[in-house]
Write a structure and sequence with these properties.
This protein has 60 residues and is mainly alpha-helical. It has helices at 15-27, 32-46. α1 crosses α2.
């Protein structure tokens, strides 16, 4: 289930690219969605457009 504070966006992606992202996500113990978000944030940082990391709510 999507987080209520996140924006949903439909993404069309090349099947070969999807396969590589899926494999990388599994290797890094992330969901595919989490991996795509990680890669996008990394790309922004590399271009000097850093987005502050989201704070995760504490679970007590």
């Amino acid at each position: 289930m999507a987080s209520p504070d996140k924006k949903s966006y439909l993404l069309r992606i090349d099947p070969d690219l999807w396969t590589e992202i899926e494999a990388l996500a599994a290797q890094e113990l992330r969901s595919v969605n989490g991996q795509i978000e990680y890669l996008l944030r990394d790309a922004l940082v590399r271009r000097g457009r850093a987005v502050p990391p989201r704070k995760k709510p504490r679970r007590d």
